[in-house]
Specification:
This protein has 349 residues and is α/β, with parallel strands linked by helices. It has helices at 5-11, 27-52, 65-75, 81-97, 104-113, 127-134, 140-149, 153-170, 173-186, 191-203, 245-261, 280-284, 305-309, 338-347; strands spanning 216-218, 224-226, 234-240, 266-272, 294-297, 317-321, 327-330.
Length: 349
């Protein structure tokens, strides 16, 4: 998935506060969801203490072994639909707390038994978007139904915004426009509607054809580095962080592309949003993620002036700048497998 609300998914976890019993829920279902919410609050507190101690958030692990065992045992005997729906949603929530990927069977059973309009999804407004990451093809129609008809307002707003931001990053106007328009029409003035509008405005700062904003930073080696450092060259400016799952997922593609195109004129500048500069070196110590190109650390991440100049609202954000200093590709054209195809088009095979 692609941090905006996407940022929210990667940086932290939703800590829900549920009503005692939502419409259409049984007391048993409500109890399951309340227990999950309480566990989420405990994990969030422990995670905050971990970060406050100066540790990297990527190293925090939540122990949900007991909770998952309890869910499995209850699912083996529970027959009532509302309770089963709550158990299946809670199971995904515990896995997400532990940063574990559910099995294909767990996802399939959830899609089969839990309607996209089920009140249980209000447990965590990040769960429905997470389904799109865990099972993109299998959940596509399901999530479209949820975006249109999920009755819980905060859950539907979050789902629409998550879809909008993902499509802005990876798709076309036809992909993101329906979710954008639904936010503006059905939730005018909401935080998500305003953030979506802000995101569109921010994207214009690095639209194809515009002059890339000038900047000044200090490399990890202590040397000055600016946009003019790459004047007359192709440079992929990469906003990233070691704590960012999508950044890590995309790293094999970037490593491969660099190895293939560095002799054809490709330069890369990675600008880190890590909380501490010391968090970068351990990640790069692995040969598979050595990132053998230029680096700088951006204090304050999203609030850094360079981030503001480039309209960074989520990461990873790649921006390919040409020898004349103008943006020649951005967004979905530079993610995953599309990265090499875009570079082939520009630099040749």
């Amino acid at each position: 998935m692609t941090f905006s609300a996407r940022t929210f998914l990667m940086l932290g976890l939703c800590v829900p506060v549920l009503a005692a019993t939502a419409p259409g829920e049984s007391a048993e279902a409500a109890a399951v969801l309340q227990a999950a919410a309480a566990k989420g609050q405990a994990v969030a507190k422990a995670r905050a203490a971990h970060i406050e101690a100066g540790r990297n958030s990527i190293d925090f692990k939540a122990d949900v072994t007991r909770e998952l065992a309890g869910i499995s045992a209850r699912l083996a005997t529970e027959t009532q639909a509302p309770a089963r729906q709550a158990l299946l949603v809670a199971q995904l929530y515990y896995l997400r707390l532990a940063r574990q990927t559910p099995s294909a069977e767990q996802v399939a059973l959830t899609l089969k038994e839990v309607p996209p309009t089920a009140p249980a999804w209000a447990l965590d407004k990040g769960l429905l978007p997470a389904l799109g990451t865990w099972a993109p093809k299998a959940s596509a129609a399901y999530l479209a139904e949820a975006r249109a008809h999920q009755p819980d307002g905060p859950t539907r707003r979050s789902l629409l915004f998550e879809h909008f931001t993902e499509m802005v990053d990876t798709g076309t106007e036809a992909d993101w426009k329906p979710s954008f328009e639904a936010l503006q029409k059905d939730f005018p003035g909401s935080a998500e509607a305003l953030k979506a509008q802000d995101r569109l405005t921010a994207e214009l700062k690095t639209a194809v054809g515009v002059q890339a904003p000038a900047f000044s930073a200090t490399s990890l080696e202590g040397l000055p580095i600016t946009l003019d450092t790459f004047k007359g060259k192709f440079v992929l400016i990469d906003f990233w962080a070691t704590w960012c799952p999508d950044c890590r997922a995309g790293m094999p593609f970037m490593m491969k592309a660099y190895g293939r195109f560095k002799d054809k004129g490709l330069n890369i500048l990675s600008l880190s949003f890590d909380r501490k500069v010391e968090h970068i070196a351990p990640y790069r110590a692995n040969p598979a993620t050595s990132m053998p190109w230029s680096h700088a650390f951006l204090p304050q991440g999203f609030k850094n002036p360079i981030s503001e100049a480039y309209g960074v609202r989520s990461i990873p954000k790649p921006v390919l700048v040409g020898p004349d200093g103008r943006v020649i590709a951005t967004g979905g054209d530079l993610h995953g497998e599309k990265l090499e195809r875009t570079l082939e088009r520009i630099l040749g095979k």
